[in-house]
Design a protein that fits this description.
This protein is of the alpha+beta class and 472 residues long. The protein is built from 9 helices and 4 strands, in the order H-H-H-E-E-H-H-H-H-E-E-H-H.
């Protein structure tokens, strides 16, 4: 009977072995044999995962594959509120630039009035009481303002370019957030499936050992140790279920829709085109192409233009060509119509006795110094981001390699341990520990592949090259 039990145990004790040739864009081990798309077995709607509602593969619609991912991301960067806001900012800046250029064109002003005019001279025979009408048309053309208008136009153009960069930054930020949300959804699903597999496996084997104890051929200490491992696996399952719910909530918040079926999410390929080969190449490209650094440089141009604008507006004169035509009826007690025409060059020079113009110029100078300091700080932060992104990619790659190797070694150990178990040289706990280690290693290896992908796309974001065309 003991031999029969051992044979039965060896037949059912082995955990389902995930297929290594699973598709989905990337190596490593995914949680389901034969499934395409890298999603593995969809979480069962009927199983609990330590709290919360477990995801269901049958409820979410939509096709899988990279094309579906790109379609979702395309919708995201077209209709998200942040994109709408950035586009509105850009349109506003374009209108501001057009308004600034309007200062080069003549100003036309028309004034009309009508009323009753009574004039008393002290001599009743000269007094008048007439219905009067006035119409005045004035045209003013700027001739020279010592750079004030030019500075306003330059500043408006720079702001427009900043808003264009801002839209580009927002678009790439959303793309990275979308990629991270999709890949983390995949990662959470894989981790949850492996955690469930581990709990089911330990629970099944603990039950078998209890049966052996009842038959007098098992060890109660093995049962207790199995239950201890079960508690640890259940804790891991609870964390995995919480991570799945958090990833689903993140997807809903970002995409404003229910998450897709987990098996429809492929593992995206690490981008190759335009990808730097070394940290030095990355840093050099970042200094040339990063949109945040470009905006910082434009901020310096804006500050310089503001100094020129303040100087022209507060301290220097303005020269205008003024043409004026007046049409009067019954004006100043004179019965009849009268016309006046004036063409003149007008010079106005502002001066405030409180020296406000000089103070305004000092304010602009201080603001320029602040912009310079922030630009230097931005450059340092972007350098740090680039270095950290590169190191994150290297770390993720090495971690994925080590975890894949760990999964392979754990699989080999488990195979040998099962053979030795049949020969009576291994205890249940040895086999159970091997199976748990294998499942956890497979889970960690699959999750590490996702980290590699997200780290790679983060580098494209730092470079300013993250576009839909780069997603494979």
């Amino acid at each position: 009977m003991i031999g029969a039990l051992l044979l039965a145990f060896s037949a059912v004790a082995a955990p389902p072995s995930p297929s290594a040739d699973q598709k989905g864009g990337g190596g490593g081990v995914a949680p389901s044999a034969g499934k395409k798309g890298g999603g593995g077995v969809a979480p069962s709607a009927g199983k609990k995962g330590g709290g919360g509602v477990a995801p269901s593969a049958g409820k979410k619609g939509g096709g899988g594959g990279v094309a579906a991912v790109v379609t979702r991301l395309e919708r995201l960067v077209k209709g998200h509120d942040r994109i709408v806001a950035s586009q509105s900012d850009l349109e506003a800046s374009r209108s501001g630039a057009a308004k600034a250029r309007g200062a080069y064109f003549p100003d036309l002003k028309a004034t009309a009035d009508q009323g009753r005019e009574s004039i008393e001279y002290g001599d009743a025979s000269r007094d008048t009481d007439l219905d009067m009408r006035h119409f005045t048309l004035t045209a003013t053309q700027l001739l020279w303002d010592f750079g004030k208008t030019r500075a306003e136009v330059d500043k408006a153009r720079v702001v427009e370019r900043q808003m264009e960069n801002g839209l580009r930054i927002t678009r790439q930020d959303l793309l990275l957030e979308g990629i991270s949300a999709l890949m983390n959804l995949r990662k959470a699903h894989i981790t949850l499936e492996y955690a469930r597999q581990s709990v089911d496996n330990i629970r099944r084997q603990a039950g078998m050992e209890e049966s052996r104890v009842e038959l007098g051929s098992g060890f109660s200490t093995d049962v207790l140790q199995a239950k201890s491992q079960l508690a640890g696996a259940q804790a891991r399952l609870t964390r995995a279920n919480g991570a799945w719910i958090a990833a689903s909530n993140r997807y809903r918040a970002l995409f404003d829709e229910e998450p897709p079926a987990p098996e429809s999410l492929p593992l995206l390929a690490v981008p190759q085109e335009g990808f730097p080969k070394s940290l030095e190449e990355l840093l050099a490209a970042v200094l040339r192409e990063n949109p945040q650094l470009a905006n910082a440089a434009l901020g310096r141009e804006t500050a310089a233009a503001e100094i020129r604008r303040v100087r022209g507006a507060e301290l220097l004169p303005k020269v205008n060509l003024v043409g004026e035509a007046k049409f009067k009826e019954n004006d100043s007690g004179t019965v009849g119509d009268k016309e006046e025409r004036v063409v003149k060059v007008e010079v106005t020079a502002p001066f405030n006795t409180g020296l406000s113009g000089f103070h305004a110029l000092e304010v602009a100078g201080r603001q320029q110094a602040a912009v310079d300091a922030r630009a230097r700080d931005t450059e340092a932060l972007v350098r740090e981001q680039a270095g950290n992104a590169w190191q994150s990619l290297l770390t993720a790659r090495e971690n994925a390699d080590f975890l894949a190797n760990q999964a392979r070694i754990s699989g080999e150990f488990l195979g040998l341990a099962k053979e030795e178990r049949l020969q009576g040289r291994r205890s249940l706990i040895d086999v159970l520990s091997g199976e748990t280690s294998l499942i956890n290693a497979q889970s960690d290896a699959a999750a590490a592949e996702v980290d590699v992908v997200v780290a790679a796309y983060s580098i494209l974001r730092v470079l300013g090259r993250l576009e839909l065309a780069a997603i494979r």
